[in-house]
Design a protein that fits this description.
Strand order of the largest sheet: 1-3-2-10-9-8
Radius of gyration: 24 Å
CATH superfamily of the largest domain: DD-peptidase/beta-lactamase superfamily
CATH class of the largest domain: Alpha Beta
Low-confidence stretches: 2-85
Structural class: alpha+beta
Shape: globular
Number of domains: 2
Strand content: 5-15%
Number of strands: 10
Length: 373
Amino acid sequence: MEKVLITIILSCKVIYIFFMGGTWNQLLDKEISYKQVDYNKAINVEPNLEKMASIRESSIIDSILNEITLGQQKAKVNIKNVEVNEINLLPHITDDIYDSGKLCVQNSKFQISDGLLKEIYELINCYGARTSFYAVNMEDNMTLGYNPDITFQTASTVKSPFVLYVYKKIDEGKVYLDDKISYDPRFYIEGAGLVSSNPVGTEYTLEELIFYTIHYSDNTSYNMLHNYLWDEGYNDMLRDLGCKEFYLNKGYIWGRGSTRSAALIWQEIYNFSKQCESGQTYLDILKDTEHSYIRNSLSDYKVASKYGWIQEHCHDTGIVFADKPYIIAIMTDNGGSWSGGEQVMKISICIDKVMKEYNQWQNDRIRYKDNIK
């Protein structure tokens, strides 16, 4: 009789969980916790895009994501309480096609509201110059793009991938933070900088030059790093990431860039921060740069970024650590003065509005699914 009662109880529990949209984990009295999911153990993240695409399609990841999204209340998952620095499922930026001069959303059925769409196009048109931006939701790969493949002079945005390469060499033990480089007048570059104000022959550690290059956007520091550490391995890194721009050579330290390639680089900066102490140190420096158009316009968030400004070009690229973080890259050729940053700041605000609309759209879909169960 006791066995019969146990069988009836278990059967009722299975039926209840089935109709309530539950999972086998709930049947075994195991709560699903977002923080318990260790994505680094579930996947071996590779920067190669083809490998990343195959990872995205794997049944292992699909099953994990399904577990997370099946009924937030029943599974006791609260996405809003997740600390952004604990997100280990990294974005998979795909090679989507964007029509020239058209704002498009990819990898989602979400549509920007008519009012916000009008606001963005009016902003673009009022400057009467080339504009490009690209943003990627870091949780699910929804992308927003406008002319993401047109190219611009990189200005100082190129410093972020080059210092990424420097930190990778440090992590591999090929160079060291306490390596010293002497200032020589041939390294001098006009523009932002502190190093050139010191006497010729002043020695700087690699660690100091990295900080000056990123925090202050010191051009002379960057030139010293480039002269000391550039090799073809830097371009190999970009090829592995799938970048079509930001390539350099021994005699040329600036290059051409695009917002899509910038997004791929920031994806790797984030990946690298999850893989080693050097990567986390680098991301922390990027979160505290002296100047950022994106950070100035989105002051409610923590922002890691590297801006660039030269002649008519004005750019900013980085990661916005909102409730649901996203990669952002903006490049324009409407500038020539510090006022050129106004356009970048306004575009940053519009992109954040799109991301908020998208988050609300997602939440509405989840509530709808819960109500029909």
